[in-house]
């Protein structure tokens, strides 16, 4: 019982809150988001709308019940007979009751996200099942009323009571806790205890075509289709006269809704939405020209955030009536890019790419939108950068020069090479300094008119932003160079002094610098916060107060004070104002202006404030108005939702989805859908998610986290889908939460699921693996044991074979060694024998030759005759001596020796002669004898010289061989 009361209280507060905070602005047109049939991909006609306790939106569409989660549109179910859905209602348990063509029933959401439709026609008799459209469905306490023109069906305790009409019903009205029914003949009836009771004087309502009724302080307020509005109080029916009676009667009222402070929203067939106050004054008229998608309004409903949903004959529109921001539009709605705005003599002027336009501001803010239009100021048709009030004059600064606006035309004051803006010179209210594309210009007020004087000499830079300080210095910001501080001479015709400041003087960058005057102080906007000039060092330093409230990381694009000491700013993409509190601290207000992100014209951001509290923002999407007295609750709670979960393989295998007829329904799958158990082949999942916050839904950011796979939440981003592939077996929880443009975080949505391991990692697989491992281990041990036995036997056999082989190799090596030794001995013997044979042969040759010589000498001696005289004998002796000398000096026998010697000593003589060609034959002989290891005494007789002569010859040979004194010539010859 306690839970039931708490739920009723929460539901009542949620329904009451938007009504109390949904007062629509009178100035401007609220922001409108249109959804056309191409967007939601269903029929163009929509007849009803509701919101469940989570915040999900549902629409009665020609194709069925359509759901919108802020990102995606889906037809979630259809009536049993597939007919058009005409009406919707919802109870405290989120059961949706549906009225269709010849059909009604209810819809519940299953655990797998699907919506199941159940028809209630089975509770009717066959005769009662014949009826047309169920135009209205109302949930009242513990019963549901389905209304058609032919019959009223009251569903309670699983039974249906049928109320019939003899002449058909026309309409049903749910007013607070009462239900009124309009009968075409009987008039107004009241449903009480399941019986229709006539209202006193109710027959007056017969044939009035009532389309809506509200309970107000003035009694029952009745909206008729063609006859306007009436009040019914004390059984008296009286017309409720409004300022728009003719418009209401001509437009044909279709529906209505009660807003806060007695405001009434009226939907029409031909003129869109009309909003009036409790006294009948027009507050808003939003039609197709003002941004509504279609003029045929079928229904109006508020959501929990204070937005007004408008279902149309073609499409759906969301009107953000709770926002303090609105667009200044008229029927023409031609100019959108606004560089400057100004209110002058109760007229609102805007500077655009096509000149200056104006409208009657007093008439416009009083609600006279139908007859108030922007009018073009003739004389200017190109870019107008600024419009300013100087004295009693309104001046415009245009691409071609300086103009004065008078009435509906502009008069050229000075043709210059472009004019950005103007500023009065301090202490000289009659002098106007104008910043141009290529320098500065001076105008002077003469006879109450501004007259061009001259261009100021000495300064040729673009001067789009100019401010003055209390010391009469002129500060000029050049967006791509830096800041100039200049002074003029006494006649204001030339610059007397210029100081220049850029990054070298303390600025974080020389680019995108700006200058502002706040509370008589010169401040500078940079890409890293607000700076000021240090009076002592003259360097640029960060301003302490603005550093605290605006930080040091944002590009300060604009600072502007208003008449209430508030400071308006544009910092990065955020717009806000700094308000001084009672304890002289400051508070920053940004949330109401989050809609302005990315709307400004880069470099031409402008904010205009008025003494009446009006604030204008010039954007590339038109002029936007802010009402400082209207408040909106920005901390409204909302939910994130998981729209769809599907397995990627097999393709698009859905696990959770609200899309119509995509999941087969069965009890087990419905109950387990929020924590499905998936096979390993389904380990790739795709998640779609959204947030049930419909204010600037495209700017909502999301973060997500797959618990069990990821260590932490993702970064905030704009994507509304996330995909995971190759997930290992585990239990997972997918978390997602949203953050809207007001930085309010949603309640998170979760989806639990489990991925089973593949069959080869299941418990049965592991048991099988264990058994197989045991068998394998036994087999391996058995095999290893047999293998070890075979290896042991093989090893023994191998060792025996190795031993025999080693013995054989040893014997072979021994035999080979013996053979080698014998070969060496044989070779040595052969060498010795050859040498001895050579010596014997040489000696034999020498001996034979010697014998021949001796025989010759003997013959000569024999010829010596004692009888011969001395001279003859002397001649014979001389002849003998010559023979001996000839033999000692001859080479015949030496050549024979040399041939034999070279054969024995590897051509020693030839090699020696080739290497040392300066050696004589005697030198060669001596070298040969040295090669034969003869000593000096043995060599002397062979050469026929003395021992001393041999030593001398050895010395000469040493020099020819280029041997040092320490080298042994015998060793050299032996090793050569």
TrEMBL record:
Keyword Aminoacyl-tRNA synthetase part of the UniProt annotation: no
InterPro entries cross-referenced by the UniProt entry: Ig-like_fold, Quinoprotein_ADH-like_sf, Sig_transdc_resp-reg_C-effctor, Tscrpt_reg_LuxR_C, WD40/YVTN_repeat-like_dom_sf, WH-like_DNA-bd_sf, Y_Y_Y
SUPFAM superfamilies: C-terminal effector domain of the bipartite response regulators (SSF46894), Quinoprotein alcohol dehydrogenase-like (SSF50998)
Pfam families xref list: Y_Y_Y
All copies of domain HTH luxR-type, residue ranges: 916-973
Coiled coil: 800-827
TM region(s), chain numbering: 763-781
Source taxon at top rank: Bacteria
Entry keywords, A to Z: Coiled coil, Membrane, Phosphoprotein, Transmembrane, Transmembrane helix
Name of the protein in question: ABC transporter substrate-binding protein
Upper taxonomic lineage: Bacteria, Pseudomonadati, Bacteroidota, Flavobacteriia, Flavobacteriales
């Amino acid at each position: 019982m306690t839970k039931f009361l708490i739920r009723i209280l929460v539901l009542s507060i949620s329904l009451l809150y938007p009504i109390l905070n949904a007062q629509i602005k009178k100035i401007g047109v609220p922001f409108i988001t249109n959804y056309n049939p191409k967007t939601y991909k269903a029929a163009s006609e929509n007849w009803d709308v509701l919101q469940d306790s989570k915040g999900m939106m549902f629409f009665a569409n020609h194709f069925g019940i359509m759901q919108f989660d802020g990102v995606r549109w889906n037809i979630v179910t259809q009536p049993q007979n597939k007919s058009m859905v005409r009406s919707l209602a919802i109870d405290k348990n989120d059961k949706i009751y549906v009225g269709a063509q010849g059909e009604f029933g209810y819809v519940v959401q299953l655990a797998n996200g699907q919506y199941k439709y159940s028809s209630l026609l089975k509770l009717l008799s066959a005769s009662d099942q014949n009826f047309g459209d169920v135009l209205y469905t109302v949930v009242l306490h513990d019963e549901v009323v389905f209304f058609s023109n032919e019959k009223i069906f009251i569903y309670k305790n699983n039974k249906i009571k049928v109320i019939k009409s003899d002449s058909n019903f026309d309409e049903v009205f749910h007013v607070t806790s009462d239900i009124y029914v309009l009968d075409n003949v009987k008039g107004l009836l009241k449903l009480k205890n399941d019986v229709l009771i006539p209202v006193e004087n109710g027959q007056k309502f017969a044939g009035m075509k009532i389309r809506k009724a509200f309970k107000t302080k003035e009694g029952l307020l009745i909206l008729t289709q063609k006859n306007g509005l009436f009040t019914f109080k004390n059984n008296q029916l009286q017309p409720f006269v409004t300022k728009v009676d003719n418009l209401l009667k001509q437009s044909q009222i279709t529906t209505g809704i009660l807003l806060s402070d007695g405001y009434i929203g009226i939907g029409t067939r031909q003129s869109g939405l009309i909003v009036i106050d409790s006294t009948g004054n027009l507050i808003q008229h939003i039609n197709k020209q003002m941004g509504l998608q279609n003029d045929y309004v079928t229904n109006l409903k508020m959501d929990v955030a204070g937005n007004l949903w408008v279902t149309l004959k073609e499409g759906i529109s969301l009107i953000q009536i709770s926002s303090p921001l609105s667009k200044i539009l008229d029927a023409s709605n031609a100019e959108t890019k606004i560089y400057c705005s100004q209110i002058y003599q109760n007229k609102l002027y805007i500077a655009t790419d096509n000149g200056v336009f104006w409208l009657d501001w007093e008439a416009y803010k009083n609600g006279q939108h139908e007859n108030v239009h922007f009018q073009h100021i003739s004389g200017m048709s190109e870019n107008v950068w600024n419009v300013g009030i100087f004295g009693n004059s309104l001046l415009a600064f245009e691409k071609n020069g300086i103009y004065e606006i008078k009435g509906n035309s502009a008069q050229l004051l000075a043709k210059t090479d472009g004019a950005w803006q103007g500023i009065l010179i301090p202490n000289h209210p009659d002098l106007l300094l104008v910043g141009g594309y290529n320098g500065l210009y001076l105008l002077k007020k003469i006879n109450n008119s501004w007259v061009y004087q001259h261009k100021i000499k000495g300064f040729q830079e673009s001067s789009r932003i100019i401010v003055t300080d209390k010391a009469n210095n002129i500060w000029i910001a050049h967006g791509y160079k830096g800041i100039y501080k200049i002074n003029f001479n006494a006649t204001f015709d030339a610059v007397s002094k210029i100081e220049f400041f850029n990054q070298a003087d303390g600025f974080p960058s020389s680019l995108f610098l700006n200058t502002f005057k706040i509370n008589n102080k010169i401040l500078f906007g940079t890409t890293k916060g607000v700076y000021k000039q240090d009076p002592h060092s003259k360097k640029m330093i960060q301003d302490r107060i603005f550093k605290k409230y605006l930080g040091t990381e944002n590009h300060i694009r604009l600072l502007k004070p208003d008449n209430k000491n508030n400071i308006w700013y544009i910092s990065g993409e955020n717009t806000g104002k700094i308000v001084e509190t009672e304890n002289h601290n400051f508070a920053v207000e940004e949330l109401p202006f989050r809609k302005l992100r990315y709307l400004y014209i880069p470099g031409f951001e402008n904010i205009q404030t008025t003494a009446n509290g009006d604030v204008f923002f010039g954007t590339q999407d038109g002029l936007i108005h802010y009402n400082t007295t209207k408040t909106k609750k920005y901390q409204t709670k909302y939910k994130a939702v998981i729209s769809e979960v599907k397995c990627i393989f097999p393709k698009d295998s859905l696990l959770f989805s609200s899309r119509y007829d995509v999941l087969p329904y069965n009890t087990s799958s419905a109950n387990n859908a929020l924590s499905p158990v998936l096979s390993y082949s389904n380990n790739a999942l795709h998640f779609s998610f959204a947030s049930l916050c419909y204010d600037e839904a495209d700017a909502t950011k999301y973060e997500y986290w797959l618990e069990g796979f990821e260590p932490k939440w993702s970064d905030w981003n704009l994507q509304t889908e996330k995909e995971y592939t190759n997930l290992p077996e585990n239990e997972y929880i997918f978390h997602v939460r949203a953050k809207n443009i007001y930085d309010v975080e949603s309640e998170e949505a979760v989806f639990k699921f489990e991925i089973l391991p593949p069959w080869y990692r299941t418990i049965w697989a592991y048991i099988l693996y264990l058994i197989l491992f045991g068998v394998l281990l036994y087999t391996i041990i058995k095999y290893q044991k047999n293998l070890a036995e075979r290896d042991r036997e093989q090893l023994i056999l191998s060792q025996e074979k190795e031993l025999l082989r080693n013995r054989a190799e040893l014997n072979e090596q021994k035999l080979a060694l013996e053979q080698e030794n014998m070969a060496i001995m044989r070779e040595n013997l052969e060498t010795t024998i050859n040498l001895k044979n050579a010596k014997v042969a040489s000696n034999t040759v020498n001996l034979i030759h010697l014998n021949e010589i001796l025989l010759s000498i003997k013959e000569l001696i024999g010829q010596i005759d004692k009888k011969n005289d001395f001279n003859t004998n002397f001649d014979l002796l001389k002849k003998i001596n010559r023979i001996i000398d000839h033999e000692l000096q001859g080479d015949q026998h030496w050549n024979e020796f040399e041939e034999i010697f070279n054969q024995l000593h590897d051509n020693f003589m030839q090699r020696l002669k080739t290497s040392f060609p300066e050696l004589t034959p005697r030198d060669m002989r001596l070298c040969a004898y040295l090669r034969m290891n003869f000593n000096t005494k043995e060599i002397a007789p062979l050469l026929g010289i003395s021992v001393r002569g041999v030593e001398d010859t050895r010395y000469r040979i040493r020099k020819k061989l280029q041997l040092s004194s320490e080298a042994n010539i015998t060793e050299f010859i032996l090793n050569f």
